[in-house]
From TrEMBL:
The keyword NADP does not apply. This is Solute carrier family 35 member B4. One of its GO terms (biological process) is regulation of gluconeogenesis. The gene is SLC35B4. The chain crosses the membrane at residues 32-51, 63-83, 95-112, 119-138, 158-175, 196-215, 227-245, 257-288, 294-313. Belongs to the nucleotide-sugar transporter family. SLC35B subfamily. It comes from the Eukaryota. It comes from Panthera leo (Lion).
Length: 331
């Protein structure tokens, strides 16, 4: 029951989170740092109150291990959000973050010496190719439009290339973090709420180096048009409302992912998150009226065929932890 509930949190929270992130990024593409800071602060405060018991509860996993995980998590979050300021369209942003599926498998084979069945290899390849097709066709038009409005197309291309490099780095770092987290859980047990708190609380001092950019965008947010919040009747600048909703939905999303990591193997978690990103991509295309061509439908077919082939995901969601461990050893 908990895995199914976690999957629901992931899809509901993460899909709506992408909408508010795109609303923020369309108005202020460089707002990644203030978004990341707000997300980390909210989750850290909530965890300090309810999980850490105001600092009185000792962590089950030693802090030195969290320090390594936190460094990777903070770097991935900052780089991913900042890439939106490097001529990276939101659909292209999604495909690189969804590419963690194949990156997780490759690093799992190299580092953990895992082996998977031919059906898993094929299904993951189909899912990855399908998402790539959808995103590439969506990003192609956005890139061409931005290039036509730039006086110096070469500089715009170099900036875009830098964004691609940043996303590639974040992709590999994210996959490595997932494997590191999986090894920690095997050694110390699975503590999703504790990991969620420390992953967001420990990096907060690092935002001192980003304080100037965060302040500048806070000023810009204050100057945005006013918006009356439904049901409450309070009027606030609309960018602050978007940020608040982004933070809340991000918390729901991450909470679901961390619960899922306690119930399923790393590859299974990555597949669920990847499918969620595909749903977010389709919803983003429809909601923001981006074109949906035959290539997009082809990508959709690849994703769902790959998902049907990867039937072990849903079997894993209904198994016990001991059965999961046996399955991991077999793979």
């Amino acid at each position: 029951m908990r895995p199914a509930f976690a999957v629901g949190l992931v899809f509901a929270g993460c899909c709506s989170n992408v909408i508010f992130l795109e609303l923020l990024a369309r108005k202020h593409p460089g707002c990644g740092n203030i978004v990341t800071f707000a997300q980390f602060l909210f989750i850290a405060v909530e965890g300090f109150l309810f999980e850490a018991d105001l600092g009185r509860k000792r962590p089950a996993i030693p802090i030195r291990y969290y320090a390594v995980m936190v460094t990777m998590f903070f770097t991935v979050s900052v780089v991913n959000n900042y890439a939106l300021n490097l001529n990276i369209a939101m659909p292209l942003h999604m495909i690189f973050r969804s590419g963690s599926l194949i990156a997780n498998m490759i690093l799992g084979i190299i580092i953990l010496k895992k082996r998977y069945s031919i059906f898993k290899y094929t299904s993951i390849a189909l899912v990855s190719v399908g998402i790539f097709i959808c995103t590439f066709m969506s990003a192609k038009q956005v890139t061409s439009q931005s290039s036509s409005s730039e006086n110096d197309g070469f500089q715009a291309f170099l900036r875009w290339l830098l964004g691609i490099g940043a996303l590639t780095f974040a992709l590999l770092m994210s996959a490595r973090m997932g494997i590191f987290q999986e090894t920690l859980y095997k050694q110390f047990g699975k503590h999703s709420k504790e990991a969620l708190f420390y992953n967001h609380a420990l990096p907060l001092p690092g935002f001192i180096f980003l304080a100037s950019d965060i302040y500048d965008h806070a000023v810009l947010f204050n100057k945005s048009e006013l918006y009356q919040v439904p049901f409450i009747g309070v009027t606030v600048p609309i960018m602050w409302f978007y940020l608040l909703m982004n933070v809340i939905t991000q918390y729901v999303c991450i909470r679901g992912v961390f619960i899922l990591t306690t119930e399923c193997a790393s590859l299974t978690v990555t597949l669920v998150v990847t499918l969620r990103k595909f749903v977010s991509l389709i919803f983003s295309i429809l909601y923001f009226q981006n074109p949906f061509t035959l290539w997009h439908w082809l990508g959709t077919l690849f994703v769902f065929v790959g998902t049907l082939m990867y039937t072990e995901v849903w079997n894993n969601l209904g198994t016990t932890k001991s059965q999961l461990q046996k399955e991991d050893k077999k793979n």
